[in-house]
Write a structure and sequence with these properties.
alpha/beta; two-stranded parallel ribbon; globular
Length: about 120
Amino acid sequence: MNMRIKLSRNIKSIMQRSAFTALLVCAGAIHASDYLWTGAVSTDFSNAANWLVDGVVPATPPANEDSATGDIVVLPAAVTANQPALTGDQALRGVVIEGAGWTLTTGAYKLSVGPHNIGDNHLR
């Protein structure tokens, strides 16, 4: 009987650790947002209405440079009439430029790009 109880406790402990590990793995699956520039309302980089995340206008503009959860800005293949202009310093995880002809106006502001740098579609 004692062996059965001990075995039951060991199995319970293993299951709890497995569930916790699965939770950590799932939490690690949370990744950066890809912000697709639309320039729908202006050239203002900091206006969330100029971006789409998963086809929806996000609540906030891109502004996270964290190497694991940071934001990646995507300038699509089709260049928009309203090209992005910084209205303040920006820090991002990466910038993907899918087409030619883009101009990113920085003015007096600084654009810092984290570990995924600036490049084509191979950054993601």
